[in-house]
Amino acid sequence: MDKVMRLASENGLVLFSKSSCCLCYAVKILFQEIRVTPTVHELDQDPEGREMESALSRLGYSPPVPAVFIGGKLVGSTNEVMSLHLSGGLIPLLKPNHSMLN
User: Fold this and answer.
1) Which residues contact 28 (CB under 8 A, 6 or more apart)?
2) Are strands 67-70 and 39-42 parallel, antiparallel or unpaired?
């Protein structure tokens, strides 16, 4: 859990993902469309990926990816991120944590 929280707080926008996950891909495309670049941690390509996946599961998400953190705080998975975007709440949440957003 410590590693997940440390990595999540190192950058303004962090995405825990798996390279083969279609929902993770959808979140990546959304961020690309709104021109933000998250720090992405691909759990299936990290030697400690299984431990991080377990830690994310303990935070209450099943499946544990994608997991999006903004400003070190867990925002959620695909449903939460897409809902925030559709309601107009994602970009204001990102602005203080992402210098590239206008």
Assistant:
1) 15, 17, 38, 40
2) unpaired
In tens digits, the chain (102 residues) has pLDDT values of: 789 999 999 999 999 999 999 999 999 999 999 999 999 999 999 999 999 999 999 988 778 899 999 999 999 999 999 999 999 999 999 988 766 554
Q: CB count, 10 Å around CB of 63?
A: 15
Sketch the domain layout of the chain as residue ranges. Answer: 3-97
Report the C-alpha gap between 23 and 91 in whole angstroms: 20
Token readout for 3 is 């590693």
Task: Specify the CATH architecture of the domain 3-97.
Answer: 3-Layer(aba) Sandwich (3.40)
Cα–Cα distance between 56 and 74 in angstroms, integer?
Answer: 10
Tokens of 40: 């992405």
